[in-house]
Structure formats: C-alpha cells, structure tokens
Amino acid sequence: MARSDYEAVIGLEVHAELSTKTKIFCSCPTEFGALPNTHTCPICMAMPGTLPVLNEKVVEYAVKAGLATNCEISRNSKNDRKNYYYPDLPKSYQISQYDKPLCENGEVEIETKNGKKTIRIERIHIEEDAGKLNHDDFGGGSLVDLNRAGVPLIETVSKPDMRSAEEAEAYLRKLKSIFEYIEVSDCKMQEGSLRADVNVSVHKPGEPLGTRTEMKNMNSFRSIVRAIEYEIDRQIDLIEDGGTVTQETLRWDDVSGKTFPMRDKEDAQDYRYFPDPDLVAIKLSEEYIENIKQGLPELPESRKQRYLEEYNLSEKDAKLITSSKYLSDLFEGAIKVCNNPKAVNNWIISDISRILNETEMEPIEIPFDSKQLGKLVVLIDKGTISSSIGKKVLTELFENPRDPEDIIKEKGWIQISDEGAIKEVVTKILEANPQSIADYKAGKDKALGFLVGQAMKETKGKANPQMLNKMFLEELNK
Ligand code: ADP
Ligand code: ZN
Ligand code: MG
If exposure means fewest CB atoms within 10 Å of the residue's CB, which of 150, 206, 252, 411 is most exposed? Predict the structure, then answer.
C-alpha cells in the first residue's frame, strides 16, 4: 500500500501553568527561577497532617480558559486524587480532576494552508504540578526541587481531530495565543509553562482509529512537528512491514531525530482515582460564570478583525501580529507613539519577525518595549535617520535596549541631510565612476541606483537617500 493510503490522527493534552501569584493549595509563590526548595511549605512538601485549601484564582482562570475556548462550564465540579509513586510527587498522589472537570466540550478554530478547521476540546481540568528532579549536576545522584510542586495547571485535552503535524502546530499556537490574551498563563515554553503530550496514530480513512503512541512533555514547536512527522512514518513503516503499533509512551530525542520507548512511571497504570476527601466540591453560580464571561478581554480573532478595519492591514499581516498578544501589544503601543500603523506593521512582519525566527525567540522575550519601537519609527519619519540606519537601531534594540535617540547619538548615526555634505559625496562618487555616468547617459537607468548605493556605502548609510537621488539626477542631467 502507498503511504498516501494512510491518514494520521493526532490528539494533544496541553498543560499550561497558570500565572496566579500563589500555588493551588497553599500560599507559596509560583514564580519561576528561585533557588531550589525556597518556595515550599509543609503543604506543598506533603507533611503529614497538612490540609490543602483551593486557590479561588485557579478556578477563575480555568473558567476563563473554558469560556475563551467555547467550553461548557460545570456548575458542579470536584477534585480527585490521581495516585502514583514518583520522587517528584511528595504526596504520592496528584490532586487533579477525573470525571467532573471544570470545562467540557469546547472548540477552537485553526487555519492552515488547507483552510479553516474546527478542533474539538474534550475537557479542561485543573491540577497541581509536580516537583522537578535534577539529574545532571550532582555526580550520578538526583536532587528534588519542590518549588514547582503545587503550581497550578490547566490541562486541555483535545479530541483526536488533527490530521497532520501542521494542524497540531496550528492548534497549539492557537491555544497558546488564547491563553496569553486572557492572561491565565505566560505560556513560556522554554520555562515549561506550556507543554504538550502528543498522541499519534495512523489508520486508513474509513477504518477505526489505530493504536496511538504518546510523547510526553514536549515544549518546542519545532520538536513537536519533527516528532509527529517521524512517528507517522515509523508507524506506517511498521504496519507495512506486517507489524502492529503498541500503545506506549515514547521519548522524542531531538539529537537523533527519533522516538524511543520509555519505560516510565505512567505506562498502563491504574491511578485509582477517587474524590479528594480534604477538599469540598466546587460549585459555581450562574452569576459567577456570567461575571467572568463579561470580563473576558478582546480575543485574537476579533482583534484581527479590528486591525483589518481600523488600520487597513492585510489579512496575512493582521493574522501574524494578532497571533501573539505580545506582538499585538507591541504594535498598538508603538502606534500610540508614532501614529504610523503602516510602518510599525512593516517592522513587525519583516525585520522583527525575521530576528525572532533566526534567534528562535518568542515574542514575549523581545527585550525592548513598544515606546522604543514607536520612537524608532518617529526618527525615520522625521528624517533624522534613514531606514537602513533604522535596521541597525533595531539590532541594537534587540542587543541592548535603550532610547533610540540615545543610540543614534552615541553611535553617530544621525542622517546627513545637509545640502553641502550631500553635494560633496555626490561629486566624489561621480568622479570615481565615469563608467556609470556614461551608462546612465546611454539610457541605463540602473546606473543611478548603483551611484546612490555607492554614496550610501561611502557615508555608512547615513546620507539621506531622497536627497542623494535628487542631487545625482541633477548632476547627471546637466
Ligand atoms: P489518556 O488520558 O490515557 O492519555 P485519553 O483517552 O484521555 O487518554 O486521550 C488522550 C489524548 O489522546 C486525547 O487528546 C485524545 O484526543 C488522544 N487520542 C485518543 N485516541 C487517539 C488515537 N487513536 N490517535 C491519536 N490520538 C488519540
Ligand atoms: Zn507551599
Ligand atoms: Mg495521556
């Protein structure tokens, strides 16, 4: 059979750490990056006799996430214990939700090169994160850091609705952007605050779904796409060779670009779920849910629509900018300073996006702020610097962000717009390039571009290009 006779089926379980100030069942801070075990207390260290108290903000954030993804919100929900043993889990159970999640039956729309598609969401539930084992640095041993134990998570479980790595990526990007917009999670993948368990199977269309494998805790788009593509190929080859896919947890190895079976804690395990007797049921009133609904901010889709109408952006640009709340806030903030949406749009979709891609940086990591970007546009609009100097200022903003005005003073990048100085350069370049003059006179208009280019080079990009153009033309036409 040909590969094209198979269809891939993908479902994602996405964990997002909530950006509440404190943990889910105690008042320890959730902040990332503290010294090991400094954000701990008897509750999150699971000392005998301690009791959890549910952080109300966690419920609020989960409901927000549910409403923003078109879920039904349960009026009556509860916490359950998921029992398993692992050294990063001091209670030997994780408080999660089993049969009554807070949110169910949602959906989000994605868009790929094949058009729009709805991906259904089975559920969103709240749970606590586990601690972190540090294996590397300590001569063979492992040390456990419980700062992350008890950090609140929402787990969003999709239906197996995706059919390619591209769709899975688009879905994850969509969820990430929604969670960023409603400010329930900072979704920093490199810090692990957004991670996905990726389930993959293959089958022939029309036949029942195939057996799936699962790759846990993936936290980069690139690895997720590569892992899915590899896994689809592996499963098809296996079936074509007469084998069968085993349901198992796999580990994706970025270096070899392969998946490997993982004999891990969660394989074919019975978690013996039961309601946590230390916590009361979660009952939500209509009024409570309605209030959260009213307070939801503008979501990516409607922001995009507004950009099309208010700023006349192209569909493609508006989509790119609004795909990230940070990019979109950068855009709006910069416009407030320079009142030039077109220019800000161009900076974001070309140079800024390129640098983000090249450095694999997420928009949230952009080191400069919207005022600085706005100021850069103002300096170009006023003719203080040329746009080629503008690019150098942008690089500088990424490396060492400060007021663009200070940057150009410090670097001596102010544009040369003085008639005399421009004239001097023009004369010098003309003297050095008699062939170009002849070419121009022979009708080769391209020679003008060359001369301007030489003059820009001579002045290290500082000469005012419009003035150069004008003056070269005057001289050439004499
Ligand atoms: P578990 O909680 O044991 O991992 P679930 O039934 O809740 O199992 O499914 C987890 C994820 O696996 C869901 O996102 C679901 O969409 C996905 N999934 C289920 N069946 C398949 C399949 N045959 N192929 C790919 N993904 C699947
Ligand atoms: Zn604590
Ligand atoms: Mg799973």
Answer: 206
